[in-house]
Amino acid sequence: MRKKKFIIVLVIVLSFVSALAYLYSYVQDNTGTRLIQEVRSATYPQPHPEPIKLMTYNIHYGVGTDDIYNLQTVIDTIKAQEADIIALNEVDHMMPRTAFQKQDEILKNAFGYEAVYAPNINLGAKYGNMLISKYPILSWTNHRLPRKGRFSEPRGLIEAQIDIDGQTLNVFVTHLSTNRQERKKQMDFIRSYIKTIKAPTVLMGDFNELPDSSKMEKITDILKDTATEAYATFPADVPNARIDYVFVSSEITIKDNQVIESQASDHLPVIAKIYLE
User: pTM of this prediction?
Assistant: First the structure.
């Protein structure tokens, strides 16, 4: 009886060892290699293979160069570019000048993407920046930027974490002051904050600053300008100044950058295509 039990146990052990040998052999062949790669892909984010299309656009609350309010023209301009992540400035919510429309909701519904609205003026009627994303927005906040006093226009900096196929992309959207002293302090704040960010980063918006200024160096010292050629973004009908930008961190590859012709706002939109490494 004991001998019979021993034989049964021995058969089980040999079967187990044989199964392990087969599994080891399987892992060594091409199929096994693919299996390991699939497991690694599920564990570690892989580079995003397709370019990500970014857009920054000060929409002037839907008033074009003809001084006529028409938000649909803005929407058509944005849709024509098929951007993945869109930064917008001067978006109204229940403002008298834009027929008390909730522009943030209209814009979000027009694209069917995720969106965040960050009003920096909020008196019931609101006015501020907006971020629209084809990709999931994991979290976001709106930083208040420095200003001279309580009677100067409040400005903000949207910070959002966006999931790009398992990679986190930090996206910032801003619209800086027209006052030089305020703008300098706001750039100092943005520079100091973004220097603490370790993940891939994008900064977009209307900076009200020319590219060759000493103030702009505060940004270009820590981020890359996606523009490869000189162009102007303001005013849209006779552009003579570049004040709208898309910046990216060093680990992001720039594929393309261009300004788009449109009279839907007093600014021209800017498009940048990037790769995440």
Answer: 0.83
